[in-house]
Design brief:
Elements lengths: L2 H19 L3 H7 L5 H28 L10 H16 L5 H15 L4 H14 L8
């Protein structure tokens, strides 16, 4: 497993726990030791980026998740979408297809049987409209 995949999974673990417990993901991240420097750095970047931009990210999920309220969406899916949207919209050094592929593969591994296709659909819509999405 690549260092970035491990970092995404670690960030997902932190965001998932924070979401479930209603606590700060950044505080949880600081409480967890990290063995690998590169994994820890990218995990930190993802958690901090998602946390900083979460209102806009959640607005996008709400807009493009046709027929799903954020509260009804599986917590894993909601946080995978948050990570992928942060990577797609705020990280310029990552190909959008990689962010989508990673989110879909992790969803296949950790979520419901329908989650991967659902996540792929939402992310695909965002990518198509990326040039007109305001990040402010």
């Amino acid at each position: 497993m690549s260092a970035r995949r491990k970092a995404r999974k670690r960030a997902l673990d932190i965001l998932f726990e924070a979401d479930m417990r209603g606590v700060s993901a950044v505080v949880l991240l600081e409480e967890r030791p990290v063995d690998e420097i590169s994994e820890g750095q990218y995990s930190r970047e993802l958690v901090q980026g998602v946390t900083l931009n979460q209102p806009k990210i959640d607005e996008l999920i709400h807009t493009y998740a046709e027929g799903w309220d954020m509260d009804r969406m599986p917590t894993v899916d909601r946080n995978l979408l948050r990570i992928a949207l942060f990577e797609i919209l705020w990280l310029g050094d990552l190909d959008d297809k990689i962010a989508v592929s990673e989110a879909v593969e992790i969803a296949q591994e950790l979520s419901t049987k329908d989650s991967a296709a659902y996540i792929n659909g939402i992310l695909g819509r965002v990518i198509l409209l990326k040039s007109v999405i305001s990040l402010t």
